[in-house]
Write a structure and sequence with these properties.
The structure holds 2 protein chains of 2 kinds. Chain A is α+β, with helices and mostly antiparallel strands. Chain A is 28% helix and 34% strand. Chain A has a 5-stranded antiparallel beta sheet with strand order 3-2-1-4-5, sandwiched between helices. Chain B is built from 15 helices and 13 strands. In chain B, α2 runs parallel beside α11, α3 runs parallel beside α15 and α7 packs across α12. Chain B is globular and about 65 Å long. The chains are: A alpha+beta, B alpha/beta.
């Protein structure tokens, strides 16, 4: 929960200012981006996602490192990713 | 994968280890607390302690959100879950946390409708699609999750969803650190500050630790090299006679935190006068409750909550583990009566708990070292 998952923003949902689609190792899910400044965030940016909310913008190097770390955590990461995949925010 | 090696490079780790050893004053023992459970996990997973000289000890802190939930709050939540028409929702981590009368999983088996969600927004969606049911979200966590709960309540209010409420158990990290600093049990030389809590609160709120308690704090990232570098920064401060808050994790943590997130928390929640922490007891101003304006979304006011207080099981020493007084393996029931499959204490439940992390990774390293030294 506190680890957070890095994802790349692939779409800002039209008509929903605070919703974006992120890609996390191939899993695409909607997350809320209402906690970030709208003018500082766009497609191609990486964000750290905590329980369905993008909590901070991160650089790609950090994103890659965190993903690798999470993958190395094994079950804890698998559980988190599974939970994200089952999430259906709108 | 690109870039990862930067944070994993064994040569760099060795170089840091050498510098760390060089900074240690001969004959002095150092104790640093890593506040965050995510750090504890990395430390055991990557054997960080193997890179540190014997005079530097890492002590695990209270920063595991599931671990600090007192048993009575689990019982209260289960009581709400058994109310007519209720759907209780919770993060997966919460499902196996034992209360005085079993866990959420046990309550589910006994007929309560308890569902796992990834996000409070998923809980809100369940409320939206089940207008004839009362949906409660079991909110737990430090400042990494409280903004999400606040934003979800704001969304519920904006949409006029009236069958959704939050059983608020959000806690704040600073009073817990202060309680540890005020506790006579433990003498610490500094702190590895929590990485992701700091993305929200920033680095400034830690300044009292340096100013009033004379202990340095370094906000640290989660990679092995992040942690080693942070230990190095702490030791360098001590060697140079400085005592400050430093940010090692600048690539994620802004010095001022996330103002939008803080604002969302402030709009929806306010500090409780006191809150019980598992193993640590009651701590003043250490948790959040819903503001009166959002009483309609406050499960503690929507339902009659029993307000159960349950003493921790006698055999369980989670309190000492959470304060860093005991290492996981020094607990009487560690690995015997208490395992991740059948946890007695909360520290064994969550992957961020010190006992679970040590059970899954650390004990193998320790076993190896013990065997090596006995040959």
């Amino acid at each position: 929960m506190c680890l957070g998952i890095p994802g790349e923003i692939v779409e800002i949902k039209a008509g929903h200012d605070d919703l974006a689609v992120v890609d996390v190792v191939g899993v695409r899910r909607a997350v809320n981006i209402g906690l970030l400044e709208a003018d500082q965030i766009g497609v191609g940016d990486w964000v750290l996602v905590h329980v369905g909310f993008a909590m901070s913008k991160i650089d790609e190097a950090e994103a890659a490192a965190t993903l690798a770390l999470l993958t190395g955590l094994g079950q804890a990461y698998t559980d988190e990713l599974q939970a994200l995949a089952e999430s259906d925010i709108s | 994968m690109r870039f990862v090696d930067e944070y994993r490079d064994a040569d760099k780790a060795q170089a840091l280890a050498t510098q760390i050893a060089a900074l240690c004053e001969p004959g002095r023992q150092y104790k640093f607390m890593e506040v965050c459970g995510g750090h504890t996990h990395t430390i055991y997973k990557h054997g960080i302690e193997d890179y540190l000289p014997e005079s530097v000890a890492l002590v695990h802190g209270p920063g595991c959100p599931v671990c600090v939930i007192p048993m009575g709050r689990v019982d209260d939540a289960i009581a709400i879950a058994h109310e007519p028409g209720v759907i209780m929702t919770a993060f997966g981590d919460m499902m196996r946390v034992p209360g005085g009368n079993g866990s959420f999983l046990d309550a589910k088996a006994a007929g309560a409708d308890i569902r796992m969600v990834y996000s409070p927004l998923d809980a809100l969606k369940i409320a939206r699609t089940n207008p004839d049911r009362r949906v409660v979200f079991m909110a737990i966590g430090f400042e990494t999750t409280s903004p999400s709960t606040a934003m979800t309540v704001l969304r519920a209010a904006a949409e006029g969803i009236d069958n959704f409420s939050v059983f608020c158990n959000h806690v704040t990290i600073l009073p817990a650190i202060k309680a540890i600093l005020d506790s006579p049990d433990l003498r610490l030389d500094g702190f590895l500050g929590p990485g992701h809590v700091s993305t929200v609160i920033g680095c400034r709120p830690y300044e009292f630790i340096a100013r009033d308690y004379g202990k340095p704090l370094v906000c640290a990232g989660f990679e092995p090299l992040d942690l080693l570098q942070s230990v190095h920064l702490l030791l360098r401060q001590l060697a140079e006679g400085r005592c400050e808050v430093e940010n090692q994790y600048t690539r994620v943590v802004p010095w001022d935190g996330n103002l939008r997130a803080l604002e969302a928390i402030g709009r929806v929640m306010q500090l409780r006068p006191y809150f019980e922490w598992r193993g640590l007891g009651f701590i003043s101003h250490s948790a959040l409750r819903m503001r009166d304006e959002y009483a309609a979304y406050d499960a503690e006011r929507v339902f009659s909550v029993p307000g159960v207080r349950v003493a921790d099981p006698k055999a369980c020493q989670c309190g000492e583990v959470l304060k860093g007084v005991l290492k996981p393996w020094e607990c009487k029931v560690f690995g015997t009566a208490c395992t991740p499959e059948t946890p007695i204490g909360t520290c064994m439940v969550s992957s961020e708990g010190a006992c679970a992390a040590y059970y899954n990774f650390g004990r193998f390293t320790r076993q190896r070292l013990t065997e090596a030294s006995s040959v």
